[in-house]
Amino acid sequence: MRLAEHRYKTISSIRSQLLMVEQVAAVRLGEVVRVVGPDGRSQEGEVLLIDGHTVLIQIFGECRGLDLRESTVIFTDAIKQAPLSLHMLNRVFNGSFLPLDGLPTPLPEKWVPVAGVPINPTSRARPEEFIETGFSAIDGLNTLVKGQKLPIFSCAGLPAKEIAAAILKNCTMTGTGQGRKQAVVFVALGLSHYEYSFYMETLAAIETNFVAFINLSSDPVVERLLAPRFGLTVAEYLAFEKEMDVLVVITDMTNYCDALREISTSREELPGRRGYPGYMYSDLASLFERAGRIKDRAGSVTMLPIVTMPEDDITHPIPDLTGYITEGQIVLSRDLHRQGIFPPIDVLPSLSRLMQQGIGTGRTRDDHRQTANRLYKYYAKGRDLRGLEAIVGRDGMSVSDRNILDFTDTFEQEFVNQGGSRRAITATLDTGLAILKRYGLEEL
Amino acid sequence: MKGRIIGISGPTVTVDIPDLKLYDRVRLGLERLQGEVVHLSSGRAMVQVYEDTRGLALGEPAEGMGRPLSAQLGPGLLTGIFDGLQRPLSRMAAVHGPFIRPGKLLSPLAMDQSWQFTPAPQIGDTVTAGEVLGTISEGSHQHPVHAAAAGTLTMIASGLVVLKEPIALLAGDIKLYAHEEWPIRQPRPYRQKLAPTAPLITGQRIIDFLFPLAKGGTAILPGGFGTGKTILEQAIAKFADVDVVVYAGCGERGNEMAEMLEEFGELADPWSGQRLMDRTILVANTSNMPVAAREASIYTAVTMAEYYRDMGCHVLLLADSISRWAEALREISSAMEEMPGEEGYPTYLASRLAGFFSRAGVVETMNGRIGSLSIILSVSPPGGDFTEPATQACLRTSGAFLMLDTALAHRRHFPAINWFQSFSLYDADMGSYFEKEVSPAWNRNRRKCQALLQRDEKLREVAAIVGADGLQDSDHLLLAVAERIRQDFLCQNSYSADAFSTPELTAEKINTIISWGEAAEKRLTDGEELADILSKDKP
Ligand SMILES: Nc1ncnc2c1ncn2[C@@H]1O[C@H](COP(=O)(O)OP(=O)(O)OP(=O)(O)O)[C@@H](O)[C@H]1O
Ligand SMILES: [Mg+2]
Hints:
The complex is a heterodimer of chains A (444) and B (539). In chain A, 33% of the residues lie in helices and 26% in strands.
């Protein structure tokens, strides 16, 4: 610990959001600094690089108005931390953890570094408790469990926002952890004003406890990298210290990755695929791996990030690297959306890798696995047959093939499609069973 | 060798310690973070730090340890789970809690655990350096304890010993211990390398039958996300007919490692009947742990694997995924401002990989035993594009290529190994082995099976254009047989009892299908109706 605050007026260069400061005597990597401009305005920044007594600083906000002669850099001797307390619940903050709801800043119970520390793999408890999202295509066929990280892969123009809102409103995390409290942490990155009002209405209407971090498209880009870290630090606190089941919804990770690219370029780092930095995998993992459960502790952190696939391309680095880290993915389809199906979830490329542990007797219902397997099998078959139908026509196909094609249409219209309504898991399974029965497909 | 920190850039730190050697281990700052010298110039050295450098300050102390990054080797590695720097994760959790914080060190081996030691020489005997002082039993394994120095024995232990105490003393109070340190980047020596002759049985039908692996051989499993790399590596780790398995989770998920720990603690090794964990060492450097330690993790793993090989064991090393290692190498290289090669990877990527692969092999050990080390690596090509540098570099040196196919995985055909693109350079040798040891029809059925699958592909292409009605009866029959090969033989659900198949069962299963197909073909030419053949006893 340094005894006094260190102040320097030795800025030697300013370029985009980077400051170079000379003759610094004491400094640590990642240290938070305050930069005060000639007009007295103050901003935060962080130490990026130390080379002897020269220090490179990344400013979180705007550099406009800073100069070389008058501006002062104050070193705080601390790395970036989040102020935590239960008073954060049901509050809305910006990407710098300042209140956006007009209420005063809550008094912190403690400060914790936002970067997080890895969970020791031997301390992890297996994610296996069912979360009900209210959507059949997820709950029935791609089940989410507590402690999982499961992204939604969307395309521009698809209703990812409405799906996120419905999950925020509808999700219940009962399962075996009956009686435990739940909370949602909502992190919005690069939001337009229109989307902002939409989500504010959603949050006002939900019954669960929430904490929201909102970064608007007009807000500083660096805050886009900070907001999810604040959100996750809060989530870990609520989960592992306050014993809550926490669902973290982040929208949109594509804006996060673009911010990462923008900042990396301004630091003149070597670009990787499509200009994204080579460390993007590790950076994304440092967020997603914070999901989980811990042995002998009650709470859980579950993540549901939303990713918009640029050019609808699942091999684009953003969805690709995300898929390599997360435990499955929920994929939205333009085709289903065009037919007016909501949620337009394509169950074929979708997958929940942790589903097996979370379903069946004692978790959802005894017949869950069997019903899910059948629906999946016939639907996959039907989708194959549609290819054949396009060539030979429906009339040229056998009776049983035509039956499966009809099943496939009904499955999309009645199982996947559910409009604005919420389905409990029993209703989901009953709907599936009824459709199978209608087409005489109870047997595999 | 002490000095101070004079610069910090992400995971690389510059120090002013004099007289360092390249690859020396360095401890940094008040937390004493671990690092390794990667670049020397006059008056300063660049250190690659294996832990999170956030919070490290200018002017903090730095100390050179005078030796390179090493692994501790001795009894008690089995059943252990270590991070990339060989920190014992179970004991770390017990001592420091569920989160891994920088700078915390514990010795990799449990120094207080007791072991049974049987001495060879007696007090008063003179021993030479390297001579065997006796053996420690760890389950069925006998660890030879080598004298680190020469001299006359003034004490030698017998019976129960603990690793922290010397196991013997030489005149002049020279202490000898039962464990040793070995620099992880340096291959352990052996007398000579031998050609692989025996198969590495994986229990996966498609591998053992179509693309067999060899003990002492190498293989890669490249595939896009969700194609089943991890599940397949874990299945092989469970079922392979080896003595010791080292599994390195390199830059992958924490949940997967936790699950493995749990499962391997409960399941039994199908060959010996013992608990799987008793033959297993896990190395877990998950994706959110520091990248430099990820780079080191595969060397930590291979060093422990070589150690058991040197005891005459058949050892299998699996790493998931080598792409994460390559990416770590790229990050380190770019932090050192080296000239980038293709896609930003350093130009030495291929030679480093080749060097790593060359640690596999069947060897005659220094004390005349035969041991083997087989290496299987998963590869995660960006965008599922196999032309990228890491896949290509692996492809050039590995003995088998098991390509995982996204289309098969989407159809839930697992293991999603593409049977047209994959190959094994060991197939001829292993084929003769299986023909001799398992079934005389092995190679014949194998050729037949491959031909059927080829023809099946062609026919399905045709059917997609002209419709199924455009095919002849014999074609339909072939499609039915191939379908059965695909569904019942090539598919193997890891979550079912079918997850493991012995070579005998594999041979029997394919023989049943192929014989049925041949009989049905005959009935068809004899004039029987296709519908009857297919409906009566559908394959
Ligand atoms: N042999 C198998 N039997 C049954 N299911 C399987 C099998 N292999 C893979 N799967 C299914 O595929 C999913 C993905 O497999 P896995 O986690 O091994 O993929 P991966 O290639 O390692 O992906 P990533 O690169 O993202 O780590 C599993 O969760 C499981 O549902
Ligand atoms: Mg994997």
